[in-house]
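Review session, final week

We close the course with one last complete record, chosen because it touches almost every idea we covered. It is Ca2+-transporting ATPase, a protein from Sediminibacillus albus with 881 residues. Go through it on your own first, then we will talk.
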Amino acid sequence: MRWYHLKTEEVEQKLGVNPKQGMTLQEADNRRKRFGANVLEDEKHTSLWLVFLKQFQDFMVLILLAATLVSGLLGEYIDAIAIMVIVLINGLIGFFQEQKAEKSLAKLKELSAPLAHVKREGQWMKIPSKEVVAGDIIKISSGDRVPADIRLSKVSSLEMEESALTGESLPVAKHALPLQQEHLEAQDQKNMVFMGTLASRGSGEGIVVGTGMNTAMGQIASLLVKTDHMATPLEKKLAELGKLLIIIALLLTLFVVLVGVYQGHPLYQMFLAGVSLAVAAIPEGLPAIVTVALSLGVQRMIKRKAIVRKLSAVETLGSASVICSDKTGTMTENQMTVKEIYTPSAAFSVTGEGYDTKGSFFQGGQEIVPDNLKAMLLYGALCNHASLEQKKGRWLVDGDPTEGAILVAARKAGITTAETNQFKIIKEIPFDSDRKRMTVLVEDKNKNRFAITKGAPDVLLSRTTFLVDHERRAMKANDQKQIEQAINRMAGNALRTIAIGIKAVPSGAVPDDFFLEKDLTFLGITGMIDPPRKEVKTAIAECRSAGIKTVMITGDHSITAQAIAKDLNLMPKDGQVLEGHQLSNMTEEQLSNMIEDVYVFARVTPEHKLKIVKAFQRKGHIVAMTGDGVNDAPAIKASDIGISMGNSGTDVAKEASSLVLLDDNFATIKSAIKEGRNIYENIRKFIRYLLASNVGEILVMLFAMLLALPLPLIPVQILWVNLVTDGLPAMALGLDQAEQDVMKRKPRSPKEGIFSRGLGFKIVSRGLMIGLVTLAAFVTAYQGDPDQLRYAQTVAFTTLVMAQLIHVFDCRSEKSVFSRNPFQNLYLVAAVISSVLLLLVVLYFEPLQEVFHTTDLQFKDWTFILALAAIPTVLFGFTKK
């Protein structure tokens, strides 16, 4: 269908859609079921069967299977079957871990997918792009990623960046008129916008005419590249560690085999023992546990209203030393309320809270709404993209909160939608953060035309020639001085100021932008406040105690920003404020020299944000930067942790970011940093546990060999320990709660190695002690009597398991085993109890006694075993090292 050929009315008719009401929820659901979700077909996923087989392609596991085969051929059927079962169970655990990680990552991808602004049953709402159907009415604003192919019905200075589709980087201006030409290529269809392209300027509305594979992007779906899982820096470090451990394990295996054969043990038995030991030495489950720990941590972040788009951000969060945060909406409620209005003839105070339309205007204690005030608010409501709607008894603003506040003030003055609908918008010059103003050309019912400009007072005043003081007259120097005093007074009360001006335009004329925005007539200034969020003050204090500096960045007046910063206890007494014009005149080096003392950046543009990020980075900081607009994307991308706003953020900002705040709240950043620190610490915990356990297993075998003793552990026992004792508690450590002082520590250095802060010493020292007590248990039980070998191996096996299960509680803290309540992590308690129950089954269930070469233990054996097993943890429980 050549939708660009048709008038919008014809498109609406063909798709059966009412442009005023949009699609009904039922019809949208029916169409989605009939035509499918609005997604491009992805590459085929690896089958579950292949994912399962992949668990057995590890080099050491293949060697173990080969050794098991040899054992079977030599008649050791029980051992061979037992090892095969253990390897199978290990493979199943790895399979389920990988599936869990895959589902978690898929869920994250779904959560971070773009949203579409659609009209359903007369209401504008935001829905996931995949739920869009043909016939939906869609609203597009600057910075939005287009969710489907759309025939435009309304445009306002809309320009699209279509390089994803056409390869052309220059923006394309759009209109809503039908095109008469035949067989137009996508880049020539000026009344269409296409899935995946980006609105770089202006706004528009249109009707969805193609979804999913029925879009221009769907036709060239081969251009869609599946995003592979990129290893995080930590995963890369662990991969390098794994290679090192493999080399060490192979050398140990060779050594154990040679020593064992030299001492007279059978070659196949020593080979199997050596390989089993190598498998135990290499924590092959570590990468899967890391991925699961990261993805589960990310799931917890989602509950705290933060979506992680890049897993590497989880590690970087723990290193953050500076948070550069927007003020509006992030540190404040983002529910602007007009409190004061200044006009050249009088000043007014305004009552009412939030977006409630109930409120009054007072002049000198008298309630009054004069004509000039009502006219000013009417013009403010016309130069406005926001809309008011009532849901469940509450008034909500759809659009910019500043515009919403002006709209609410207009409603308080009695200006209705019917009144604003009498005016027709002829042209719009959209707001952007560089111009700091927005202009519309309107026509009233009498065909009179005039331009309305709304924006920052300092910008408008420089373009103002006249003012209305009972009647229109030329502005004088004294008038400008009074206006500036009013601005400063409002800013000193932490009010954000927006000025409104108008200009008469000849009937029927559509002048250029420059003409519309010069020689304006000043009408007045609205002073509005966006109160700080209650939880932000505490969050900033917690960040400070965590060694993280919080910096406020805002486009507001410096006095307003300073007042909010002091209210939040963000800025110390000697803290400095920098304004945009000062930043513009500074080199990066000059800014770097003084940036440590700056806590508030006011009147800044998005370009300044990039300069601020680089200056902090030059001082060695790890910078988290928030943003929501298209122009914020470079600074977000350049920062170490880019943070975008889930509610107010554009799709471009979200795509550039590594973290999305669902509630646009600064306190969520603090929670994400806390969670990020905890995830990293949990990974260190189970690395410590796994490697210390493996060191203990290796050393007990090595020491026994060097002392010419029989094997304290047989291969199947080593593998059982590696699977049951190591696996379940290690996973539970990945779910551990944060320690109380996690936000009282300094940020972690990004150059910090895995074994830093004494972790390497803890692994070796605890592993050595676990090995020694296991050997002591074996020697005491064996006493040189070959008839006691099975009993001694059972005692050694049980001591090793119990020493590791007690040691796991020591791994929960960098300080001491006594510093944390062991029942705080119920997952860990359950994992330990499960491991003990499985141990008891192996010890006392007769069929398994033959498989694992175990025998019954008496009460006195258990007291001896538990006393020895507790020594490593108790011994080091009184030291931080």
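Two points worth writing down before the exam:
Residues 222-230 have pLDDT under 50 and may be disordered.
The longest strand covers residues 149-161.
Good luck, everyone.
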